[in-house]
Amino acid sequence: MVDSPDWDRTEVSQSVPDAFEGRLPEVLGSLQRLTGIGMWSYDVPRSELWWSDEAKRIHGFETEETPTVSDVVGRYAETDRQAVLDGLVAAIERGESFSLGVGYASDRTTERTIRLCCEPLVEEGATVALQGVVRDVTDMKRQEQRIEILRRTSQELRSASSKDEVAEILADAAKNVLGLVNTTVRLVDENRNVLQTTVATEECLERAGDRPNYTVTEDTPAARTYRTGEPVIHANHDQTEDDHSRGALQSGLYVPIGSHGVLSAGDVVVDAFDEYDLEAASLLGELGAEAITRIGWVKRSRAI
Fold it and tell me: Do 68 and 41 form a contact (C-beta atoms < 8 A)?
Protein backbone atom coordinates (compact mmCIF):
# COMPACT_ATOMS: atom_id res chain seq x y z
CA MET A 1 0.00 0.00 0.00
CA VAL A 2 1.37 3.43 -0.97
CA ASP A 3 1.56 5.98 1.86
CA SER A 4 -0.44 9.17 1.35
CA PRO A 5 1.74 12.23 0.59
CA ASP A 6 2.42 14.70 3.37
CA TRP A 7 1.29 17.85 1.54
CA ASP A 8 2.56 20.15 4.31
CA ARG A 9 6.13 18.88 3.87
CA THR A 10 6.25 18.86 0.07
CA GLU A 11 9.59 20.27 -1.14
CA VAL A 12 9.69 22.93 -3.85
CA SER A 13 12.00 22.25 -6.79
CA GLN A 14 13.13 24.76 -9.43
CA SER A 15 14.06 22.06 -11.93
CA VAL A 16 11.97 19.81 -14.17
CA PRO A 17 10.74 16.81 -12.12
CA ASP A 18 12.37 13.48 -12.93
CA ALA A 19 8.93 12.06 -13.69
CA PHE A 20 8.61 14.57 -16.56
CA GLU A 21 12.12 14.13 -17.99
CA GLY A 22 11.88 12.91 -21.58
CA ARG A 23 8.07 13.00 -21.44
CA LEU A 24 7.43 16.65 -22.27
CA PRO A 25 5.31 15.92 -25.38
CA GLU A 26 3.16 13.50 -23.38
CA VAL A 27 2.82 15.98 -20.50
CA LEU A 28 1.87 18.83 -22.86
CA GLY A 29 -0.69 16.58 -24.53
CA SER A 30 -2.26 15.77 -21.17
CA LEU A 31 -2.38 19.43 -20.17
CA GLN A 32 -4.05 20.35 -23.45
CA ARG A 33 -6.70 17.68 -23.02
CA LEU A 34 -7.35 18.72 -19.42
CA THR A 35 -7.68 22.42 -20.26
CA GLY A 36 -9.23 22.09 -23.71
CA ILE A 37 -6.53 24.37 -25.11
CA GLY A 38 -4.69 23.50 -28.32
CA MET A 39 -1.29 24.81 -29.43
CA TRP A 40 -0.02 25.84 -32.84
CA SER A 41 3.02 27.44 -34.47
CA TYR A 42 3.96 28.75 -37.89
CA ASP A 43 7.52 28.87 -39.22
CA VAL A 44 7.49 32.03 -41.35
CA PRO A 45 10.63 31.44 -43.52
CA ARG A 46 9.59 27.86 -44.27
CA SER A 47 5.83 28.53 -44.43
CA GLU A 48 5.29 25.49 -42.22
CA LEU A 49 2.28 25.17 -39.92
CA TRP A 50 2.21 22.84 -36.91
CA TRP A 51 -0.94 21.98 -34.94
CA SER A 52 -1.15 19.92 -31.76
CA ASP A 53 -3.61 17.04 -31.62
CA GLU A 54 -5.93 19.08 -29.39
CA ALA A 55 -5.85 22.04 -31.78
CA LYS A 56 -6.76 19.68 -34.62
CA ARG A 57 -9.59 18.16 -32.59
CA ILE A 58 -11.04 21.60 -31.84
CA HIS A 59 -11.09 22.33 -35.58
CA GLY A 60 -12.52 18.97 -36.58
CA PHE A 61 -9.35 17.52 -38.15
CA GLU A 62 -8.11 13.99 -37.60
CA THR A 63 -4.81 13.72 -35.71
CA GLU A 64 -3.02 12.29 -38.74
CA GLU A 65 -4.04 15.22 -40.96
CA THR A 66 -1.62 18.08 -41.71
CA PRO A 67 -3.83 21.11 -42.33
CA THR A 68 -2.54 24.21 -44.10
CA VAL A 69 -3.37 27.77 -43.09
CA SER A 70 -6.06 27.82 -45.79
CA ASP A 71 -7.51 24.55 -44.47
CA VAL A 72 -7.79 25.98 -40.96
CA VAL A 73 -9.20 29.35 -42.00
CA GLY A 74 -11.71 27.48 -44.16
CA ARG A 75 -13.14 25.94 -40.97
CA TYR A 76 -14.16 29.38 -39.69
CA ALA A 77 -17.40 31.18 -40.44
CA GLU A 78 -17.18 33.05 -43.73
CA THR A 79 -17.74 36.39 -42.02
CA ASP A 80 -14.68 35.85 -39.77
CA ARG A 81 -12.15 34.49 -42.25
CA GLN A 82 -10.81 37.84 -43.45
CA ALA A 83 -10.25 39.05 -39.88
CA VAL A 84 -8.12 35.95 -39.19
CA LEU A 85 -6.10 36.44 -42.39
CA ASP A 86 -5.62 40.14 -41.63
CA GLY A 87 -4.43 39.25 -38.13
CA LEU A 88 -1.90 36.74 -39.47
CA VAL A 89 -0.57 39.24 -42.02
CA ALA A 90 -0.21 41.95 -39.34
CA ALA A 91 1.58 39.46 -37.07
CA ILE A 92 4.08 38.57 -39.79
CA GLU A 93 4.62 42.04 -41.30
CA ARG A 94 4.45 44.19 -38.15
CA GLY A 95 4.93 41.75 -35.28
CA GLU A 96 1.45 42.43 -33.86
CA SER A 97 -0.16 39.86 -31.59
CA PHE A 98 -3.91 39.21 -31.70
CA SER A 99 -6.75 37.37 -30.02
CA LEU A 100 -9.94 36.73 -31.98
CA GLY A 101 -13.24 35.03 -31.27
CA VAL A 102 -14.36 33.37 -34.50
CA GLY A 103 -17.37 31.31 -35.47
CA TYR A 104 -16.82 27.70 -36.48
CA ALA A 105 -18.40 26.79 -39.80
CA SER A 106 -20.24 23.49 -39.83
CA ASP A 107 -23.45 21.92 -41.05
CA ARG A 108 -25.06 22.81 -37.73
CA THR A 109 -27.27 25.87 -37.53
CA THR A 110 -26.39 26.37 -33.86
CA GLU A 111 -23.15 28.26 -33.39
CA ARG A 112 -19.75 27.30 -32.00
CA THR A 113 -17.08 29.87 -31.13
CA ILE A 114 -13.32 29.39 -31.14
CA ARG A 115 -10.80 31.74 -29.52
CA LEU A 116 -7.63 32.04 -31.64
CA CYS A 117 -4.59 33.73 -30.07
CA CYS A 118 -1.28 34.55 -31.76
CA GLU A 119 2.05 35.86 -30.45
CA PRO A 120 4.80 36.64 -33.01
CA LEU A 121 8.44 35.73 -32.36
CA VAL A 122 10.57 38.59 -33.68
CA GLU A 123 14.34 38.45 -34.23
CA GLU A 124 16.35 41.43 -35.48
CA GLY A 125 13.22 43.24 -36.54
CA ALA A 126 11.74 40.37 -38.54
CA THR A 127 9.02 37.92 -37.55
CA VAL A 128 10.50 34.43 -37.74
CA ALA A 129 7.61 32.49 -36.22
CA LEU A 130 4.08 32.72 -34.95
CA GLN A 131 2.97 30.77 -31.92
CA GLY A 132 -0.37 30.59 -30.26
CA VAL A 133 -3.24 28.72 -28.71
CA VAL A 134 -6.82 27.87 -29.68
CA ARG A 135 -9.77 27.03 -27.48
CA ASP A 136 -13.41 26.19 -28.00
CA VAL A 137 -15.11 28.94 -25.96
CA THR A 138 -18.67 28.05 -26.94
CA ASP A 139 -19.67 27.24 -23.35
CA MET A 140 -18.25 30.54 -22.06
CA LYS A 141 -20.13 32.41 -24.74
CA ARG A 142 -23.30 30.61 -23.75
CA GLN A 143 -22.84 31.78 -20.17
CA GLU A 144 -22.60 35.33 -21.49
CA GLN A 145 -25.72 34.69 -23.54
CA ARG A 146 -27.68 33.75 -20.43
CA ILE A 147 -26.78 37.08 -18.87
CA GLU A 148 -27.80 38.81 -22.09
CA ILE A 149 -31.12 36.94 -22.05
CA LEU A 150 -31.87 38.11 -18.53
CA ARG A 151 -30.96 41.70 -19.29
CA ARG A 152 -32.38 42.26 -22.75
CA THR A 153 -35.37 39.92 -22.85
CA SER A 154 -36.59 40.81 -19.37
CA GLN A 155 -36.69 44.47 -20.39
CA GLU A 156 -38.63 43.73 -23.57
CA LEU A 157 -41.09 41.41 -21.84
CA ARG A 158 -41.97 44.09 -19.27
CA SER A 159 -43.56 46.15 -22.02
CA ALA A 160 -45.37 43.23 -23.70
CA SER A 161 -49.16 43.58 -23.55
CA SER A 162 -50.30 40.31 -25.16
CA LYS A 163 -49.38 36.64 -25.32
CA ASP A 164 -48.65 36.95 -29.04
CA GLU A 165 -46.18 39.74 -28.34
CA VAL A 166 -44.47 37.59 -25.73
CA ALA A 167 -44.19 34.77 -28.27
CA GLU A 168 -42.58 37.14 -30.79
CA ILE A 169 -40.04 38.32 -28.22
CA LEU A 170 -39.19 34.73 -27.21
CA ALA A 171 -38.68 33.63 -30.81
CA ASP A 172 -36.48 36.64 -31.54
CA ALA A 173 -34.33 36.06 -28.44
CA ALA A 174 -33.99 32.35 -29.18
CA LYS A 175 -32.81 33.14 -32.70
CA ASN A 176 -30.67 36.24 -32.21
CA VAL A 177 -29.34 35.75 -28.67
CA LEU A 178 -29.08 31.98 -28.34
CA GLY A 179 -28.46 31.22 -32.01
CA LEU A 180 -31.42 28.81 -32.12
CA VAL A 181 -32.44 29.97 -35.57
CA ASN A 182 -35.05 27.27 -36.22
CA THR A 183 -37.43 28.17 -33.41
CA THR A 184 -41.18 27.67 -32.96
CA VAL A 185 -43.32 29.02 -30.12
CA ARG A 186 -46.65 27.31 -29.44
CA LEU A 187 -49.14 28.67 -26.91
CA VAL A 188 -52.04 26.67 -25.52
CA ASP A 189 -55.56 27.77 -26.48
CA GLU A 190 -58.13 29.07 -24.00
CA ASN A 191 -59.58 25.59 -23.48
CA ARG A 192 -56.07 24.14 -22.92
CA ASN A 193 -56.68 21.54 -25.57
CA VAL A 194 -54.39 22.63 -28.41
CA LEU A 195 -50.84 23.94 -28.63
CA GLN A 196 -51.25 26.51 -31.36
CA THR A 197 -48.28 27.58 -33.47
CA THR A 198 -48.00 31.27 -32.62
CA VAL A 199 -44.58 32.15 -34.05
CA ALA A 200 -42.07 30.25 -36.22
CA THR A 201 -38.86 31.85 -37.45
CA GLU A 202 -38.36 32.28 -41.17
CA GLU A 203 -35.48 29.81 -41.11
CA CYS A 204 -37.62 27.20 -39.39
CA LEU A 205 -40.37 27.55 -41.99
CA GLU A 206 -37.83 27.25 -44.82
CA ARG A 207 -36.29 24.06 -43.41
CA ALA A 208 -39.31 22.37 -41.86
CA GLY A 209 -42.34 23.82 -43.65
CA ASP A 210 -45.47 25.15 -41.94
CA ARG A 211 -45.43 24.05 -38.33
CA PRO A 212 -48.58 22.23 -37.17
CA ASN A 213 -50.67 22.71 -34.07
CA TYR A 214 -50.61 19.84 -31.58
CA THR A 215 -53.33 18.61 -29.28
CA VAL A 216 -51.97 18.53 -25.75
CA THR A 217 -52.80 14.84 -25.38
CA GLU A 218 -50.97 13.55 -28.44
CA ASP A 219 -47.64 11.72 -28.35
CA THR A 220 -45.33 14.41 -29.70
CA PRO A 221 -42.26 15.86 -27.96
CA ALA A 222 -43.87 19.30 -27.68
CA ALA A 223 -47.10 17.93 -26.20
CA ARG A 224 -45.22 15.72 -23.74
CA THR A 225 -43.09 18.65 -22.63
CA TYR A 226 -46.24 20.71 -22.09
CA ARG A 227 -47.89 17.95 -20.04
CA THR A 228 -44.84 17.11 -17.91
CA GLY A 229 -43.24 20.55 -17.68
CA GLU A 230 -39.88 18.86 -18.36
CA PRO A 231 -37.44 20.21 -20.98
CA VAL A 232 -36.06 17.55 -23.31
CA ILE A 233 -33.59 17.04 -26.15
CA HIS A 234 -34.37 14.79 -29.11
CA ALA A 235 -30.97 13.92 -30.53
CA ASN A 236 -32.33 12.19 -33.65
CA HIS A 237 -35.78 12.80 -35.08
CA ASP A 238 -35.59 9.48 -36.92
CA GLN A 239 -36.32 8.03 -33.49
CA THR A 240 -39.17 10.46 -32.77
CA GLU A 241 -42.20 8.24 -33.17
CA ASP A 242 -44.99 10.40 -34.52
CA ASP A 243 -46.42 11.14 -37.94
CA HIS A 244 -45.38 14.79 -38.14
CA SER A 245 -42.80 15.92 -40.70
CA ARG A 246 -39.93 18.12 -39.56
CA GLY A 247 -38.44 18.60 -42.99
CA ALA A 248 -34.67 19.03 -42.92
CA LEU A 249 -34.52 19.27 -39.14
CA GLN A 250 -32.78 16.23 -37.69
CA SER A 251 -32.71 17.04 -33.97
CA GLY A 252 -34.54 19.31 -31.57
CA LEU A 253 -35.05 20.63 -28.08
CA TYR A 254 -38.30 21.42 -26.27
CA VAL A 255 -38.81 23.59 -23.18
CA PRO A 256 -42.01 24.59 -21.39
CA ILE A 257 -43.28 28.16 -21.23
CA GLY A 258 -44.75 27.46 -17.81
CA SER A 259 -48.34 26.28 -18.20
CA HIS A 260 -48.77 28.53 -21.24
CA GLY A 261 -47.02 26.65 -24.02
CA VAL A 262 -43.77 25.24 -25.42
CA LEU A 263 -40.74 26.68 -27.18
CA SER A 264 -38.96 24.29 -29.54
CA ALA A 265 -35.86 24.58 -31.70
CA GLY A 266 -34.37 22.30 -34.35
CA ASP A 267 -31.16 21.75 -36.24
CA VAL A 268 -30.26 20.15 -39.54
CA VAL A 269 -27.75 17.72 -38.00
CA VAL A 270 -28.20 14.88 -35.53
CA ASP A 271 -27.25 15.46 -31.88
CA ALA A 272 -26.87 19.23 -32.33
CA PHE A 273 -27.92 20.27 -28.81
CA ASP A 274 -26.49 19.78 -25.34
CA GLU A 275 -27.43 20.62 -21.76
CA TYR A 276 -26.15 24.19 -22.14
CA ASP A 277 -28.59 24.81 -24.99
CA LEU A 278 -31.41 23.23 -23.00
CA GLU A 279 -30.63 25.27 -19.89
CA ALA A 280 -30.51 28.57 -21.79
CA ALA A 281 -33.73 27.85 -23.69
CA SER A 282 -35.41 26.82 -20.41
CA LEU A 283 -34.47 30.16 -18.91
CA LEU A 284 -36.09 31.87 -21.86
CA GLY A 285 -39.23 29.80 -21.36
CA GLU A 286 -39.39 30.78 -17.68
CA LEU A 287 -39.16 34.48 -18.55
CA GLY A 288 -41.94 34.08 -21.09
CA ALA A 289 -44.14 32.27 -18.58
CA GLU A 290 -43.71 35.06 -16.03
CA ALA A 291 -44.63 37.67 -18.64
CA ILE A 292 -47.78 35.85 -19.78
CA THR A 293 -48.86 35.31 -16.18
CA ARG A 294 -48.36 39.02 -15.48
CA ILE A 295 -50.44 39.96 -18.54
CA GLY A 296 -53.23 37.68 -17.31
CA TRP A 297 -53.21 39.32 -13.88
CA VAL A 298 -53.39 42.79 -15.41
CA LYS A 299 -56.34 41.85 -17.63
CA ARG A 300 -58.23 40.25 -14.74
CA SER A 301 -57.64 43.22 -12.46
CA ARG A 302 -58.95 45.61 -15.11
CA ALA A 303 -62.06 43.49 -15.51
CA ILE A 304 -62.92 43.75 -11.82
Answer: no
Tens digit of each residue's pLDDT (9 = 90 or more) over 157-216:
988 999 999 999 999 999 988 889 999 999 999 999 999 999 999 999 999 999 999 999
In a domain, 71, yes or no: yes
The 10s digit of each residue's pLDDT in 96-145 is 999 999 988 776 666 788 999 999 999 989 999 999 999 988 777 777 76
Are residues 229 and 160 located together in one domain of the fold? yes
Q: What is the pLDDT, as a whole number, of residue 26?
A: 53
**What span, in angstroms and rounded, lies between the C-alpha atoms of 182 and 202?**
8
CATH code at position 204: 3.30.450.40
Largest CA distance in the chain: 83
Element (H, E) at 128: strand 126-136
Instruction: Give the total number of structural domains in the chain.
Output: 2
Indicate the residue type of 85: L
CA distances in angstroms from 63 to 59, 69, 76, 78, 259, listed in the order given: 11, 16, 19, 24, 49
Q: Are residues 259 and 245 in the same domain?
A: yes
DSSP state, residue 145? H
Both 30 and 150 in a single domain? no
Residues 293, 164 share a domain? yes
Query: Could you count the other beta carbons within 10 Å of the beta carbon of residue 62?
Result: 9
Residue 290 to residue 238: CA distance in whole angstroms: 34
